[in-house]
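Figure-free illustration: sequence to structure, shown twice.
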Amino acid sequence: MIILDVWLGPNSELDGIELLKKLIIINPIIPVIIISGHGTVDMAVNAIKNGAYDFIEKPFNSEKIIILSKRAIESAKLANENKLLKKIAHPNTPLIGNSSFIINLQKDLDRFSKSKSRILITGSRGSGKKLIAQIIHKNLFGSENLVKIIDFKNLSDSELTELLEDNQEKISNKNIFINSNNGTLVFDNIDSLPIFFQKKILLYLENKNFFNKSNIKWNIKIIAISSKNIDYE
């Protein structure tokens, strides 16, 4: 992760935004947080437009930069994971093997991809749950739209509140539903999500008018993942 100031000093041939453009070309996945002591709305928009993860105006408190850095690193981790999964799971490509289990699994995945129902995938760690979710996503949306994976295991209440903001006057592109529209939203470790926030997600899923008020057409495939047998929890 890189924290980059817009002002790089009088001897620098580049400013932070110009350097940002070069960094994104070298590695588009690495998260870059732009900071400035004289930030404007236009500067912030320009930074995000050119690939910055976020923009912070100085001075800022240490807690804010720590939370943002943690979130940026997690986002980069998921982006890299998506990149690796794209090389493994190609849409409409059968799983390796010709056993009856693999054949039946492929049929189930094709059926799940066509269904509008929400999906719960359970299994022990390392059993390929995310890979299955990726295949379902690619069968449904193709390779253009990335799957968004949210791991609830290590998120704080403040982070969850921001991701699940339901006040339409405060809602932003950081809301996971808006940020994942026209794609697949995967809830990893759904069993780790506190009941209060589970209810907020349920409100989104049941409130058909919410996105209508925001002039957003709902088009999200919801997949939840758990390493536990939720039926026995």
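We now fold a second protein in the same way, so the two outputs can be compared directly.
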Amino acid sequence: MYDSSLENENFLRGVQEADANGQVTFTSIFPGAYMGRWPHIHFEVFESMSNATAAGQVLAVSQIALTQAACEDVYATAGYESSARNFPRTTLQSDNVFGDDGGIYQLAAMSGSAAAGYTAGLNVTI
């Protein structure tokens, strides 16, 4: 993502640095649902910010699976019509990433609403 040819592109990517407790907080939009994949957010873990921005060695690569209840709530709102059609076609068990264990290690704990916004949390062991 740090290639100069991508300077004017927006892939909803970002870099955050963990605090003293190893926690990262960020704000994003709710991802849409597309055919064959359960709604999720990708992340990578690097040893340092300089390693991340230099595309250095990755310590971990994973995804946060979003809850069914949150997806159903969000996809019932305007702007998510395509996601409302795609979402029922995939389950955590049929997803090609989460299917092995139904996403139990990657499923976020979520609270909130489509109207007020959601908070998602996931403990990741490195």
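Summary for the second example: The first strand starts at residue 40 and ends at 46.
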